[in-house]
Amino acid sequence: MKLYYSPGACSLAPHIALNEAGFTYELERVDIITKKTEKGADFFAVNAKGYVPTLVLDDGQVLTEVPVILQYLGDQKPASGLVPKAGTMERVRAQEWLNFITSELHKTYGPLFRPTTPEEFKKLSREYIARRLAILEKHLASRPYIMGDKFSAPDPYAFTVLRWSKFTGFDLSPFTAINAFMDRVAARPKVQEALKQEGLVKG
């Protein structure tokens, strides 16, 4: 399989999951501005939506959307613990957190990157993020990872999105449990591997 990615973008989450679960895969970088891949291909020909992550399976099928890709990867490698077994309440809780991250955090950080976003709207976005992070902060105060004691699919997604704070002027310092979580995830060898592969930390 092949993951199309842009360094530090939301595609970092499935990239981490691929490493954590021990998949064999290819990477191809995408310029999200020009929509060209590092090999010069038209990215729209790969994914008509034009954004990462895009996972091309060995049979040619194309998967998009972070929560979907994370759940797919977890189902292919059940022993990885990325996602609980389908049909269980634990699986539902994992989906609940994946949806919270994608709808309440991921999409709210987006406008903070755009230079055309009015400052007043950015201010409101940061206030909204702070209220949502208060929920995550309380949750993480009593557990090392989002689903409990073990690393699972919501963790690389939350880690990826929260990394954007330093690039968007959002102050994470008041969130003690979240900062501890970020350090904990960043210290994982397979996470470090993904960060190095994307050039986000020195090798």
Task: Provide a brief overview of the structure.
The chain is an alpha+beta fold and 203 residues long.
Keywords:
alpha+beta; 203 residues; Glutathione S-transferase Yfyf (Class Pi), Chain A, domain 2; globular
Walk me through what this model shows.
The chain has 203 residues and is of the alpha+beta class. It has two domains: 2-81 and 190-197, Glutaredoxin, CATH 3.40.30; 89-188, Glutathione S-transferase Yfyf (Class Pi), Chain A, domain 2 (Up-down Bundle). It contains eight helices and five strands. The chain has helices at residues 12-21, 66-76, 89-113, 119-140, 154-163, 165-168, 176-186, 189-197; strands at residues 2-5, 26-31, 36-37, 54-56, 62-64. It is globular and about 45 Å long. The relative contact order is 0.15.
